[in-house]
Design a protein that fits this description.
The chain is built from seven helices and no strands. By secondary structure, it is mainly α. It has one domain.
């Protein structure tokens, strides 16, 4: 099991697993020395003191291990959260993609139809220029329009119909898969 240490991330060098103020070599030496001692009351006292040091060492190692396990648990929770967020983001992305693809297919179908309609627009304007307005209808609105095209252009004199059609055709021809996907992708973020 990999034990995550918070110190390993926060510090420049990985931490050395040691207990403060206790040298393992000196403890080993004390144990060997106590084994060589003669059975006396002083030996009993020294061995009792050594046993207390070993108990303190065990408690310190237990605390160190618990801290390492706790840090590993925190790391595990953090990674689970990261993975959960990634899974949520991925599922949202696929859901948005499932919406985008049919919309894009419809757009491509309509784009071809709209471009064809815009290509025929000058012919439609010529047809409107040849259709006269009936004199009985001229009395319903004020103006000196003789044809339907003149009537349509007098409704909005600030825009030229043919120029607007060319502008729309140019804008529609610039719509590509890449530009739509790029804009859609940034909207999803």
């Amino acid at each position: 099991m990999f034990l995550f240490s918070l110190k390993a991330i926060e510090e420049k060098y990985p931490p050395d697993i040691k207990i403060e103020h206790i040298d393992r070599k000196s403890i080993r030496q004390k144990i060997e020395d106590s084994m060589k001692m003669a059975p006396t009351l002083a030996t009993l006292s020294a061995r009792t003191q050594l046993a207390l040091e070993l108990k303190d060492l065990g408690v310190a190692y237990e605390k160190l291990c618990k801290d390492l396990v706790h840090h590993q648990h925190l790391q595990n929770q953090g990674w689970r959260t990261v993975l959960s967020n990634l899974e949520d983001s991925l599922s949202d992305f696929f859901r948005q993609t499932d919406k985008f693809i049919p919309w894009y297919r419809k757009l491509l179908e309509r784009k071809a139809q709209q471009l064809e309609m815009l290509e025929r627009f000058p012919d439609t304007c010529e047809l409107l220029a040849r259709i006269p307005i009936l004199s009985s209808l001229k009395t319903l609105f004020s103006g000196s329009s003789d044809t339907l095209l003149q009537y349509c252009t007098t409704l909005d004199e600030t825009h030229d119909l043919l120029a607007e059609a060319e502008s729309a055709k140019a804008a529609l021809s610039q719509v590509t898969w890449f530009t739509l996907f790029f804009h859609w992708f940034w909207l999803c973020l």
